[in-house]
Amino acid sequence: MSALVEKLILEPSESYPLYVLATRYSANPPPQSNSLDDYTLICLHAVGSHKESWEVTIQHLLNLGRKSGHHAYPRIREVYSIESPNHGESAVLNADILAKHYSDDWPTREYTRAAHSFLTAGPSRGARVDFRRRKIIALGHCFGAVALFYMHEMRPRISFTAVIALEPGFSPGTDYPDYREVFRKFQAWSWLRPNVWPSRKAALRDLSRHPNFKTWDPDVLRSYINYALSTHPASRFPEPYTFNGVLVSTTREQESATYKSDDFVGAPLEACAITSKQIPVHLIWGGVHDVLPSHLKHYISNHMSSASVDFMEGAGHMIVQEKPQLVANKIHDLLLSFSPIKAVL
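^ thats the sequence. predicted structure below, dont judge the formating
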């Protein structure tokens, strides 16, 4: 099954000055009727990623719902994947204001503000949905998970039924062991990652062999090629100066600026604890400790004593990119646990 897919744009306004882009996914064919018990899923992505990074997971998840039947629970009404305004396609639209105001630092809370702006835009703008009437499950990966934990600070409040956080990436403090080493890794990756190719075909060939990408699910990698890259600006130059290649839409400067945010250090730990006391929170960690050390994952998990925790074997920090089907299966199981009515067999 291919989901129904719609691109959404929330225009800049007095309440939020940047474009906020999202993709809406729904079952194809859609259910004949919607119930108050149907879930709306909100997805936020990792640093260096893009809104379509969730697409393969979402397709698997909607397929699981289709196989269960239209009258089974949990039923997913729609899924919205919201992009950080300094990443992906959004970074291209917001390029001027990013260069002027966010060249050195992109606060994680700015992603929170963007998502909040999208979810509170009301029935006349953006998604044209009154999310106050929806039963929302929020999913965040890395940076996106941390942005979700800060949502408790925003007003008006967004009512989430639960939060599912995958590899939330932050440090409990500047004095925490390996803090500097983890963020050195992030900065090195930002500045050394492949960035420009003569074509999308060349990019796919190159990244398929790259150590940081070759572990990705092939469909997720193709999604990255299709959506995370854009036409090189030198394509506008006249001959003989033109270059008709592609480059990563999220600039290295913006990726680096995102990792430099103070919002990654200290405060997220308290935000996690507050959120987990208010609503169900489930943490999903990769069983491969390639970026975040094992002791950090256990420290965060223990601090959120009311949260449930899973480790997914064979997955590293880029868990959504590496194991989209397993992630979808786990989310489906969690939705079942949140549902008042279990699936009809």
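The longest strand covers residues 4-10.
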